[in-house]
Amino acid sequence: MASFTALKAGKARRLPEKITSRRSTMYVPDFEYHAPNTVAEACAILAELGDRATVLAGGTDVLHKMKVGKLTPEHLVSLKNLDELREIREEPGRVVIGALASHNQIYNSRLLQRRYLSLPLAAHTMASNQICNLGTVGGNIVNGVPSADLPPILIALDASIRLTSARGERTLPLEDFFYGSAQTRIEPGEILTEISIPDQQTTGSTYMKFGLRRSGALAVAAAAVSVQVSGDTLHGVRIVLASAAPTVLRVTAAERSLIGRRIDDELLTEAGNFAAQASRPRDSIRGSAEYRKNLVGVLTKRALRKAIEEGHA
């Protein structure tokens, strides 16, 4: 880097020849850019380049990682031309969300607002409007971070995903996609192409999180819930936690304990306690493990109550 001369109080001084902090430079390292026009073409490029290539969707995470030196691909394979992956549509037996649908597309989707309002509301809590215009549901899933907002509510709604590569396609339940912090079961050369939410008997669902700011903050803890209520009895329930373990956590023990029981405050408190006990949060700058466990219990109880009340509306 060339040096610069600065003037201060009439005296010249030399600035350092090199800025050593990667975070302060925020330069994107050199790479070769590819913009295929079809999914098949994108898969073929990824198959040829192997681990030298990284997929670029919205870019809100990939470009940041490149700027701070956490990611240094030789090639970026942009999906920007694959408009078919931006669709949100209704098909017999399911709702399909293209992996390139942005957070704002999900928030503004009339279909999702009508069928699964909890998902648009979760998307609305994620980040600033600028980020929500760029960030994609596929990127939010593939990053695999335990604080991501969309995977918990999608899992609560029994979503599955389709992964496509030059070898073919495969589908799997979203809850099976994660196995550790930022660790997923996506294989080399694969692209997440769609998310599918099946038709179901759910009567209510919700996503609640606590962050250190009113909006746009990472979750200190969060709970997503879907329920099937008939009369005053809970016939089905799914409880999924974020920022409560190294990965998104479904609390099946709590779910089993609730099925077939009469709904009252004692039952909801018990479910919150089950969720808190099952959680495995860590101490972080956003909160201690003990604090986050307490939040899990409170948020689970509140989310259950809201989802149940939605079913009685």
Automatic annotation (TrEMBL):
Q: Which InterPro entries match?
A: CO_DH_flav_C, CO_DH_flav_C_dom_sf, Diverse_Substr_Oxidored, FAD-bd_PCMH, FAD-bd_PCMH-like_sf, FAD-bd_PCMH_sub1, FAD-bd_PCMH_sub2, Mopterin_DH_FAD-bd
Keywords for this entry?
FAD, Flavoprotein, Oxidoreductase
Record-annotated FAD-binding PCMH-type domain positions: 26-202
Q: Give the organism, scientific name.
A: Geoanaerobacter pelophilus
Q: What is this protein called?
A: Carbon monoxide dehydrogenase medium subunit
Keyword RNA-binding on entry: no
Question: Is Flavoprotein there in the keyword field?
Answer: yes
